[in-house]
Protein: Membrane-spanning 4-domains subfamily A member 3
Amino acid sequence: MASQEVGNAEPGTASAGGPPARQAEPEVVNSVYQRNDELQNHQKEKLQALGAVQILNGATVLVLGIFLASLQNIFHPFSQFFFISYTAYPLWGPIFFIVSGSLSVAAGRKPTRTLVQNAFGMCIASSAVALVGFVFLSVNLAVNKHSFKNCESSQSQDLCVYVGIFSNGLMSLMLILTLLELFISTSVSVMWCIESSCNSIEVISFPSNSV
Structure:
């Protein structure tokens, strides 16, 4: 009788006290895949949003730099307030930011290996450029404090003071945007690094689990 009961037991079902059925394993693997897909989609949306902010930030710094250069040409006798224009940071700095943001958006939409590597490299370069720009702007603001003393000996003292205050306002705004770009570029670099490492772990681990 015992042999007949054992023989009539359906294959794939667990006996009392036995191990769980193996048919549940594909469902577990599918649920893990689904969770990973949801996390990756959320990560891509974040990267695209941060890339768009990078583009907007770079465009704003570029417009402010062009406006600052035009002011330097108009108020040429007070060129001591526009030290940052001689470094050309308001031109080449925003170009790095815009290119880095564009690559982040493109790689978030279509994460190929080439785009991800280029976006990761440009984010690191943008972080370095933002750090250099922060140093230049800080030096310019420090120099402007001493330049205000020269306004006392200037013939148009009031105009000199107004130009210095306006220049400091533009520098301060560019400094805030540069700090924002530094934080965004660093965050995007870390996110790209985490995503690439997670993808490599997923490729290695899932085939072994399926086997």
